Amino acid sequence: MSAPLLSIQALTKAYPGVVANDSVSFDIEQGQVHALLGENGAGKSTVVKMIYGLVKPDSGSMTWQGAPFAPTDPNAARSAGVGMVFQHFSLFDALNVAENVALGMENPPPMRDLAARIKEVSENYGLPLDPARTVGDLSAGERQRVEIIRCLLQDPKLLIMDEPTSVLTPQEVQILFKTLRQLKAEGTSILYISHKLEEIRSLCDHASILRLGKNVGECIPAQTSARNMAELMVGDTLQTPTRTANLDGEVLLNVRNLSAKSASAFGTSLKDISFSVKSGEILGLGGVAGNGQDELLAALSGELRTSPDTVQIKGNPVGHLGPKNRRGIGTLAAPEERLGHAAAPNMSLIENALLTGEVRQNLSKKGFVNWKGAQDFAQDIIKAFDVRTPGPDRAARALSGGNLQKFVIGREVLQEPDVLVVNQPTWGVDAAAAAAIRQSLLDLAAKGTALVVISQDLDELMEISDRFGALNEGRLSEIRPAAGLTIEEIGLMMGGVSAQEAAE
Amino acid sequence: MIRLEKRAEPSQLWSLLTPVVAVITTMIAGGLLFAALGKNPFVAIRTIFYDPLFGEFAFYYRPQLLVKGGPLILIAIGLSLGFRAGIWNIGAEGQYIIGALCGAGAGLALYPMESVLIFPLMILCGLLGGMLWAMIPAILKLKFGTNEILVSLMLVYVAEQLLASMSLGLLKNPEGFGFPGSRNLQDYPSAHNAELIAGTGMHWGVLTAFIAVIFAYVLLKKHMLGFNIRLTGEAPRAARFGGVNPNRLILFCMGASGALAGLAGLFEVAGPAGQVSIDFNVGYGFTAIIVAFLGRLHPVGILLAGLLMALTYIGGDIAQSSLSLPSAAIQVFQGMLLFFLLAFDVLTNFRIRLAVKGAA
Fold first, then answer.
1. Which of A431, A454, B20, B246 has CA 20 to 30 A from A342's CA?
2. Cβ contacts of B117 within 8 Å, gap of 6 or more
3. Hey, is the C-beta of B225 within 8 angstroms of any chain A C-beta?
4. How many Å apart are CA B345 and CA B21, to the nearest integer?
């Protein structure tokens, strides 16, 4: 085999208080799809930032096609042939596709030529895209295509993709994979960053696994089980959730023809949503982000009020009640955004325990706060959910994402709700913590709570849901038993018919 | 290259230290300013900070500390509640004027009747006047989404016009030989907000200010409403999720700050000022904004900051007369205090790093 395209030797990068990368080494061969696998905070982003010239390594070296490689900025990296598609898109909504692509170029050709090039490249790679369309009107998947085409126009030798599938429906993922395979066949190398193991197994030739900034293993994904890879990532044996479903309970949450306008101008309004959840049942709701998940949670938590009968808890109309009253009758919620929504970043864990614990934990008396009680409650959460923190008086923002998530979920679970609604319960949480959170949700269901779990992680939903539905543009699909659903069926539920047409 | 790095948690130490460092830095920078004006900086600083308390005429100046500090503290306490919740009442000066007009008006309407009920009635009217004036921006914000900063600020100028009109018209002293201004309430025993202990400067308004400090402290530390106020300021979305009704909070914070500003106006007009006149207001309502921030929006901090601010007022007056420092220099000096406070405030949430050149 010839010399590798990019060889990384002992790259080390330390930030104040944390070593992001500790002597990381791996090689990327020509035409190879190389996976970089690791939990959040394992140091994947730092590695690619160094390759892309955004961060300078403290020590170690890189070799590009046999020559030393030390890009000082992204321009240098790009001219060497590195292209990168970021997880968060940097596109201007008000401009059209061609204009957005031109913005990323140093010497953009005339707009007409550029539009023709975009059309040509997008058709070549099976990523249909109209250069004249305004980016603001595009779906997440189409926006990603803009970013990819922006890179492809530079004929990169190495394409870096950071968590590319987190915003896509299964059908869109298939289209993307087809493109990536075609690129690989043409000799382009791809560095693929993800923590979705099944994707890596189906796409990647080789994987480097990072844990806590160190390179802990290499494997050939197709020959390694997802479980083994996960254990390499976590460095621990995984606990698979266990459960026994009991589906003869009474209906605790009943939503009837719920329509509500989003509070935000960029939100998605809810359109005629109806479903019910029984005691002991977990209803999983999938869907691509931004299809009404936040609004549905708000309507169930009481942040968004509707007419009384649209939301019924244990037969009582509660649509007009605010969050405090709903907590009083046993309905709790945990929103997706930890900092600023589920918790106040600058306030202590004690104060954040009081935030939703006031009513059910009796933390106030005649309006006066029972701080001792709030502290005990915070301690209980920290203990029961293994929240790693020096103490409950720490500010919420000082906790890592996973720890704060455990706190936020634990805070609601420990209050023994009758109905619990969670949005993205394990988003950005390492695998061990995610397993613990899922298990706690299953335990809660076993005790008779009716749960609504909104998530974009389909594996998670399939693992814990009894029934499954999907949100699309504020509408809820038909709800079906989760057991036996195929990924194709789920994709259709998530995207509706239009997604299928796009796929074909 | 200097770089700011966000701290994982706000520094407790710096949050207490910034006001002290700001005062010291203000002394240094102010000293340089006075030196540039050809005055001895040490004498000037001593005149401002030391003479009012311990100088030859301190017996006269010390009571002034309470007289000037009282209204500042009272108004700043009210403002701090709203500021904590992210509700910006900038128009305390207007609420102060309206409180004074309503309270004095109630007293003057009953002149020359004597009754122990008159002063309490005036207090009530002053409180309601300030509160209602603050309700205007609050209700406009709720109904039409207007910006309370602009509306409350503009209402200050409306209030000033009303004050001028009142002191030239409705409330003008009929026995005042045509001079603008109302009867002097100091000469009307039932309405006079006299010193509670002669020679201390301690009047009902100062007492109310101290009570307000305690009340605000308990509210913020121990009560759900205080928790909700802080929560709304820190994370409005989390507050809504927690079940805080933002509209009610706006009404409460605007109402409370208006009421306290109105009270301050009433106590001033019935006491130290004595009469409603065209230029009765001297800017306490604006200075109280500085006091609120200088005191870190904390009740005890505001108490200290109010006294400190009063000190610079009194000391500034002395420096003007005895050292013939221009009044603009004194105002710059007071402005520096807020400037340095806000500048050093950065250190509470950030630490300074000296970055190596070239690093990203």
1. A431
2. none
3. yes
4. 10
- Residue A301 and residue A421 in contact, taking contact as beta carbons nearer than 8 Å: yes
The Cβ of residue B352 has, within 10 Å, a number of other Cβ atoms equal to 11
Token readout for A439 is 């298990």
CA distances from B117 to B102, B110, B122, B190, B266 (A): 16, 11, 9, 8, 15
CA distance B352 to A137: 43
Q: Are A189 and A158 in contact (CB under 8 A)?
A: yes
**Nearest residue, CB atoms, B10 vs list A16, A354, A395:** A395
Asked if residue B336 is part of any domain, the answer here is: no
Q: Residues A117, A174, A457, A90: what is their CA dihedral angle, to the nearest 10 degrees?
A: 0
At A289, list the tokens.
């982000």
In terms of residue numbers, what domain contains B78? 40-324
Residues in B closer than 8 angstroms to A343, CB to CB, are 235, 238
Q: How far apart are the first and last CA of chain B?
A: 11
Give the one of B9, B237, B360 whose C-beta lies nearest to A341's C-beta.
B237
The 3-class SS string of A127-142 reads CCCCCCCEHHHCCHHH
Range A6-234 has CATH code 3.40.50.300:
yes
Residues of B with CB below 8 A from A55's CB?
360
A416 touches chain B (CB under 8 A): no
In chain B (360 residues long), the average pLDDT of successive 10-residue segments reads 76 82 92 92 91 87 92 97 95 97 94 91 97 97 94 96 92 86 89 87 94 97 95 93 93 97 96 90 91 91 93 90 88 87 84 61
DSSP element (H, E) containing B161: helix B148-168
Domain parsing of chain A, residue ranges: 6-234, 251-338+417-503
| Residue A241 per-residue DSSP state | P
- List of chain B residues whose C-beta atoms are within 8 Å of the C-beta of residue A397: 8-9
SS3 annotation, A387-412:
CCCCCCCCEHHHCCHHHHHHHHHHHH
Residue B219: both structure tokens together? 């509210």
- Cα nearest neighbour of A333 on chain B: B241
Instruction: Measure in Å the smallest separation between the Cα of A355 and chain B Cα atoms.
Output: 5
Q: Which two tokens stand for residue B132?
A: 């209602």
Q: Which of A344, A369, A395 sits opposite B238 (nearest CB)?
A: A344
Question: What are the tokens at A154?
Answer: 């530079």
The tally of domains found in chain B comes to: 1
Is residue A327 within 8 Å of residue A359, measured between CB atoms? yes
Contact at 8 Å (CB) between B79 and B276? Answer: no
- What is the least distance, in Å, from the CA of B288 to any CA of chain A? 26
Domains A6-234 and A251-338+417-503 agree in fold: yes
The CATH homologous superfamily to which domain A251-338+417-503 belongs is P-loop containing nucleotide triphosphate hydrolases (3.40.50.300)
The answer to whether residue B17 is domain-embedded is no
Assign A283 to helix, strand or coil.
Answer: strand
In this structure, the dihedral spanned by the alpha carbons of residues B102, B104, B105 and B106, taken in order and rounded to 10 degrees, is: 90
Indicate which CATH number applies to the domain containing B221. 1.10.3470
Q: At what angle do helices B284-294 and B327-349 cross, to 10 degrees?
A: 30
ipTM: 0.84
Bridge partners of residue A21, in order along the sequence: A13
Asked if the structure places residue B163 within a domain, the reply is yes
Q: Please write the tens of the pLDDT for every residue from A84-138.
A: 888 777 788 888 888 888 887 777 888 888 999 898 888 888 888 888 888 877 7
Domain-embedded: residue B44: yes
Q: The pTM is what?
A: 0.75
CB contact under 8 A, B237 and A54: no
Taking alpha carbons only, the member of A11, A35, A24 closest to residue A192 is A35
* Tokens describing residue A470: 């999907």
How far from each other are the two terminal CA atoms of chain A, in whole angstroms? 38
CB spacing of B234 vs A335 below 8 angstroms: no
